[in-house]
Amino acid sequence: MKENKELPDIVPLLPLRNRVIFPKMALPLYVGRERSILAMEKAFHGDGHILFVAQKDPEILEPDINDIYKIGVLSHVIQLFRLRDGTFKTLVNGVTKVKITNIIQEYPFYKVEYAPEAFTSDGVEPEVVETLVAALKEKFISYIKANDKLPMEMITAVNQINQAQNLCNIIMGQFSPNISQERSQEILELNNLDLLLKNIKSLLDEELKLLESGRNLRKKIEKINFYEQNKESKFPGAQQEQAAEVNELKKEYEEIRDRIYEKELDDEVQKKVLDELRKLKLMSPMSAEASIIRNYIDWILALPWNKIRDNEIDIHKAAEILDKDHYGMKKPKERILEHLAVQTLSGKVTGPILCFTGPPGVGKTSLARSVAGACGREYVRLSLGGVKDESEIRGHRRTYIGAMPGKIIQSFRKVGSSNPVFLLDEIDKLSSDFRGDPSSALLEVLDPEQNDTFTDHYLSVEYNLSQVMFITTSNSLADIPWALRDRMEIIELEGYTEWEKLEIAKRHLLPKQIDKNGLKPENINFSENAIHKLINNYTREAGVRDLERNISSICRKIAYDLVISSNQTTNKTFHVRKNSVNTWLGKEKYNLTRRKEKSYTGFVNGLAVTSFGGDLITAEVTIVPGKGKLLLTGKLGEVMQESAQAALSWTRSKAVNYGLKKDFLEEIDIHIHFPKGAIPKDGPSAGITIATAIVSALLNIPVRFDVAMTGEITLSGRVLQIGGLKQKLLAAHRSGIGRVIIPSENKSDLNEVPSRVLKELEVNTVDNIEQVLSLALDSDEFPPNR
Length: 786
Known about the structure:
Elements: E1 10-16, E2 26-31, H1 34-45, E3 49-54, E4 71-82, E5 88-105, E6 110-116, H2 126-146, H3 153-159, H4 164-175, H5 181-188, H6 193-233, H7 236-262, H8 267-281, H9 288-302, H10 315-325, H11 330-346, E7 353-357, H12 364-375, E8 379-383, H13 391-394, H14 407-415, E9 421-425, H15 438-445, E10 454-455, E11 462-463, E12 469-474, H16 482-485, E13 488-492, H17 498-516, E14 524-526, H18 528-537, H19 545-564, E15 574-576, H20 581-585, E16 600-601, E17 603-610, E18 613-625, E19 630-633, H21 638-653, E20 668-673, H22 687-699, E21 702-703, E22 707-709, E23 712-713, E24 719-720, H23 725-734, E25 739-743, H24 755-760, E26 762-766, H25 769-776
Parallel strand pairs: 1-3, 7-12, 7-13, 8-9, 9-12, 14-15, 17-22, 19-20, 22-25, 25-26
Antiparallel strand pairs: 1-6, 2-5, 3-4, 4-5, 5-6, 10-11, 16-21, 17-18, 18-20, 23-24
Helix pairs in contact: 2-3, 2-6, 4-6, 7-8, 8-9, 10-11, 10-12, 17-18, 17-19, 21-22, 22-25
């Protein structure tokens, strides 16, 4: 039985190499072996206890139970951190000495039962033990005074220890790392108190002799060095060489001082760097501290303090640059120009931080670069993807080895200006761990009210960021912390339409890839139909990155054909047509979702917005015998499932109006399915689609094949506003839909839809589900007579 009832009966076991732990000993450990990591994680996430035993042969990577000692120390895991290389760093504290009594488990890690190891005095009088303890204290205090690596506060702690076992454990905690593992294990296994005290006293005598020998040796070396230095100074050549070195250092320090005064530094910064220079003069130039101070002064002098680049903004020229670099994007461009107009009038950077958000490949990063060109400012980009350490933003304090400023300050040194356009790219990809939260550090950077006093941990002085025009980008607003998002104005960059992609390909992508692949414009002739085919059948994206890759692939193949043909010196032209795209790129990767050519019962065309833009989705409903269950398939999200419940409840409330029994649901099950089951689907906008499919299936009335719809449904049958109308109508037009049903509340959003699309679509606005059914159901007898 264990004396301490709080200790567990069974604990994980971890073999140690070249190390013996003693009770009352706190120390860090690095754990790298797989079985050791599993044991440590089990202990840390369990009750915190683990048994450490020394390994007899440290060379064995996977020791079995015969390769470890039977006596060890039950310990408590205080902290556990995962390092970048996959290993763990842990802080443990020894609790009590124990002996392994039974092996409970060997894989994936050891679990054992144990029994405490008690001390015995074997007839030794208490007075004798007290005398040995007093002598041991005296020896250990002498050791502390002689060893400059141990703090003097330990003397007070040692004087307060009265129990012999605790004193022995504290002393061995200091000596165990410096003596052999075998000797440490021998002392740990001693249960006789008299023998234990005498062994540790003998160990202290040995360590004191070593300290004394080391001290004598250092004195001899100092005398020799002193003699050699004086001997060299007697020779004129040595004196001249030393004087030259001193003069060179003085000259270098004077140059640094002149640079400090020439630099337009604030008073606080100048005082700080001059103080550092005074410290440097008093140090040996070869010392480690001198190197740290020199590096610090170099950083201060390399930064563009108050170096402002003139940027008189010409709004007309800025608009031309934005239009030249980016096709479309009417609303984002208008907001950027408004922002620049305010700066022109106020003469300073004002207003919130701009955040461009949208799917990958829509031009967020390149738009920020164009803003820098329109402003006449330097451009600097900092990618935040994967940044999880606060020090990467604020820098490390100089007390750390290899300390440097954070990436914000490093970027200013690189760009050489205090008022660049600073892009914080992928701000939604920030993460955090035990080293801090970088998003919290960015709060000060992006707050115009306080970023004029931004303090980097390395510099320890304020740096003015108020003249910087910060722009951020993200793919998802949901992943940006609320406090950070509150400091930014969100500008959404929607996916491009098919015609916008066509124009971007003709104006930007084709000329860029022709030049990049060493071709001439006359070497390649792309038809518009071929580009349309690339967009619809070889890419599925909101942006144009895949489109550019496909164009680049065709250009490379043409370059190859030119090189291997005998006509490589001529202006041979390769024609890329719709029918020949397959020849260049192989079979089509995607097929457009097209409407059916016939009306079906329970089959309805819906409209949705995905990460690739708008898409046509279909809802299918079938009625089967059952007991009133609603079956939902097609990887539907929680909100979409709730929409289906609301649509069914509305249908049940109107059952009598449509000639159905009140209890019609008691004998049937309704199965609702959305094809493309591997693709997640969610959102409320499929509400009227589901309701129409349910009514169609129950009444056995087909739904018009050329109709698509979108809208949220309520329990009372009202149709509510939805988002992404532009993308949805573009998808309907692309899929051959002739009539679209949308909520009346979305009528104002039709202004954003291209006029060429509206001319070919019949758009019906509705307020309730009855209007939807009248337009969608393919029957002259609907609605039925009530």
